[in-house]
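We emphasize that the prediction below concerns an isolated chain of 304 residues; any contacts that depend on oligomerization or on bound cofactors are therefore not represented. The input was used exactly as deposited, without trimming of termini.
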Amino acid sequence: MILILRRISSVLILKGNSSINNNNKRCFALGIKSIINKFTIYQYMIVFLIILHLTSAFFYGFGAKSLIPAAIAVLTATLLDFAINYFKLKTFEFPQSAFISGLFIAGLLTQNLQWYIYALAGAIAILSKHIIKIDQRHIFNPANLGVLFVSMSFNVSHTWWISSPLVLALIFGVFMVWRLRRFDLAISFLAGYYLINSIIGLSQGAQFQEIYYTILNGGVIYFFSMFMLIEPRTNPAVGKQRIAYGVLVAVLFIVFHSFIPRHDLPLALAVGNIFVPILNRVKFEFKKKQSKPSISETLKIENY
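Result of the prediction step, given as a token string:
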């Protein structure tokens, strides 16, 4: 009898310990979640982009001078957006989205350009956000449009040098995709791009090893899909539309890369942005075929 009681008590103790461990795990998970939720998407993006700028500048050979364009683009975009918002709303609020646009512009355009090119790109980004709208939402990704405008107007290149720390870019990028719940968009773009590109490459005699290295070294592609493409205001609101949008931008990128390689990615995103209002109005619903009722069901319906 004593042995039985001891066994019962030991089982109860083990169950109690397991429940305590489960509660501790839940508390730990809730604690981490509450810490993550203390910061906004804008704050995370600003911190991540600043880290990528600094890492690229000091550990990848770009040097401290590469940060001067960032200062110019950020100041131009931030001050202009601040002035427009104050004129419209009479409120003093730090324009975080404009700060982000400036960081993107400086990180995508090549260094050693004239200072006014970075300033103009920042101004175009902010003006497009306030002027080119549908249903109170800006159509174009502001930073992307600013980069595209100056690169086509002044025939300058965009090197996407901010994506040089690939491991950091992937870690930050996956986090941003997770926070914005845009895995469907990022994966559909990457899958569409690499699948179509691989088929084209194989048809032209490329080896599997070449395709493997293309996927492995696609730092710019990964950065684009996890930072630029997922900007929430310029992509579809629903999952199925986002998947279609991701594949569309991938196809546009491949086409433009064949004919206008100097402006392929920004142009693909800008053209893709134009289709977003249309995709938001399209419903991807497939009606299920109604199966014919069985004989027994027919007899029940007809009261036989």
